[in-house]
UniProtKB/TrEMBL annotation:
The keyword Transcription applies. PROSITE patterns: HTH_ASNC_2 (PS50956). Pfam families: AsnC_trans_reg, HTH_24. This is Lrp/AsnC family transcriptional regulator. InterPro entries: ArsR-like_HTH, AsnC-type_HTH_dom, Dimeric_a/b-barrel, Tscrpt_reg_AsnC-like, Tscrpt_reg_AsnC/Lrp_C, WH-like_DNA-bd_sf, WH_DNA-bd_sf. Coiled coil: none annotated. It comes from Bacillus songklensis. PANTHER family: LEUCINE-RESPONSIVE REGULATORY PROTEIN, TRANSCRIPTIONAL REGULATOR AZLB. Residues 12-73 form the HTH asnC-type domain. Keywords: DNA-binding, Transcription, Transcription regulation.
Amino acid sequence: MLSNYRIPDLAIDEIDKKILSILHENSRLSYTDIGKQVDLSRVAVQTRINNLIEQGVIEKFTTVINPAKIGIHVSAFFNVDVEPKFLEKVAEQLEKEPAVTSLYHMTGPSKLHMHGIFTDNQEMERFLTEKLYALEGVVSVDCQILIRRYKSRMGMKL
């Protein structure tokens, strides 16, 4: 539950937390259906959700797609060592790549952690050789291919 987390300076109560949990499970539910679960009117639920959006608690509503169902069969994680003076430039280039689903600057002055998805190993190899290794400042790349997904974080689970 979110009650284990401290959310500073936000007007968020137990009902908001419950609404967030419901939305996390199914963001397509109507305000009326959510209202039934939290014992509020449709208008009250809509107001609360709009407030959560305005406060930045809800960043966006999205669709989670199963990659294998659309022909994407390779999921890989990369640790990319970059010369410090090129870190921002490399990150800016990588974040533009459609295959890159997440990109983080990790501890250490020049370490990027990245997740990418590809239709097959050949597409991943082309990404590595033509795009990643070609970026100025990339020193080394460690790649790990996902074998099986047990749990995937899609937003914060309450």
